[in-house]
Amino acid sequence: MNQEYKVIIEKVKADKDSVKKAFVKMKKKKPKEIDQLFHSRHETFFQKNSCLDCANCCKTTSPIFRDVDIKRISKQLKMKESQFINQFLRMDEENDYVLMSSPCTFLNNDNTCSIYQFRPLACAEYPHTNRKNMNQIFDLTLNNTEICPAVATIVSEIILEV
Ligand code: SF4
Ligand code: SF4
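# iron/sulfur cluster complex -> structure
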């Protein structure tokens, strides 16, 4: 992750109380209005920045592997599902399958994903800042400010407006 990304993540981390207060204030807005605040900034961030310069989510956290993800990925890798689970996954406290090790086994040195075309849905949806009903995932978004520079940037801009 480049220095600029690290700085924005640290800045938002230090200002977490302001973010929490802003999220409480934001809940008074209409869900559509909240979505618009996030979605427009999501577009802008990813027009100017590439995940290939970062990969911090792949390096530090694990997606959830749903049964359908396991089925699809193991089929593509020509492995038995049980073999895939035994080799790469563990069950977490919430009984979800997650990666056994971090950084992700499927992350290449150039930050590309070796299973990109059939990666878990959780990877495809991350960092969730273009999702509908952002008002329902404020806690997740707050957590993601510590991982993803896109989320940290988007949130740091939004709290100045609410
Ligand atoms: S989603 Fe966020 S943390 Fe993951 S690579 Fe892209 S910018 Fe980095
Ligand atoms: S499967 Fe691919 S996108 Fe998902 S965490 Fe691993 S490297 Fe990243």
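# post-check
The chain has two domains: 3-58+127-158, 64-125.
Residues 105 and 139 are 27 Å apart (CA to CA).
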